[in-house]
Amino acid sequence: MNLTPAAGLELRQLCRDLGERRLLDRLDLKVAPGECLALLGPSGCGKSTTLRLVAGLDPASAGKVLLDGEDLTDRGPGERQVAMVFQSYALYPHLSVEGNLALGLKVRGVPVRERQRRIEAILDLLQLQELRLRRPAQLSGGQRQRVALARALLRQPRIVLLDEPMSNLDAQLREELRPELRRLLCGREQPVIYVTHDQQEAVGMADRIALLEGGRLQQVGSPRELYADPANRFVASFLGRPAINLLAMEPHRQLGLRPEHLRLGDDGAVAARLQRREWWGHQQLLWLDTPWGTVRVLTAPETPLPTEPRLSWQRQHELWFDPRSGERLAHGRI
Fold this sequence. Notes:
By secondary structure, the protein is of the alpha+beta class. The protein has three domains: about 1-80 and about 155-240, Rossmann fold, CATH 3.40.50; about 95-155; about 245-320, CATH 2.40.50.140. The protein has eight helices and 19 strands. The strands form five sheets. The protein has a six-stranded mixed β-sheet with strand order 6-7-8-3-9-10, with helices on both faces. The protein has a four-stranded antiparallel β-sheet with strand order 2-1-4-5, with helices on one face. Helix 2 (about 95-105) crosses helix 3 (about 110-125). The chain is globular.
């Protein structure tokens, strides 16, 4: 008996060229069985390109896609046992929920009894039993998303790929569905790749985050690692709301300070003047004019503002960067 544990998904030096343009540049990534990895980054950074290469929808220009040590690079989408969930849901409007779920199984020749058993199980898992006879137009956005996920999981995939699956939903519904999606997807046998440009969604869904920019991997790690110990200025700027303050204090070094790490008092090192404030309920965001430019400070709503405010911070919270390259400098590294 082979007791070797599954190796999960591995991308080795994966590249994708379109003409003379390189969309993805030598991507190295591993996703363990049951792990949810978020591909995060701005539009055009290579997130969806990576997903398409893993699914076999586009050919790799170089590199390999391996699953449990098996090379899938030259195999077509139908041979990879991949399930994809898109932002559009792509449900058939003339079919009921049950009909949408059954169609793919019929096409793949699954026997009637097995087909019905699997549909009943997935309807129970995603709490869709009461909706089985409704058509997509009679469902809410969150319900349609669950049907799309159910259809994907019915394929009994070896990998689950999600491409901005909640981008069509409003913010409140996304927040409600996030823990439900994580419960359904994470910790199962399959590796999961979740593509999003929304850092809150990535932090809420993923075990680890791979941050891409310009087709290149900038950093991979837990949400906490990327936030507290960013590899470069791009990572520090992309993670965190409100955004990090970047101050050109010295000719050859740029200082990064998170808004929540700054303190207001009357004995700080830097003079400041209130420009405006934003009320966030449990916090307030202050915009202050300083000799280095505008600085954002996040404080409790009841924090008093001195007549002549001054800023201070602890040295351990300093993040230093090369002002030209954006690379992280050793001094001040957490």
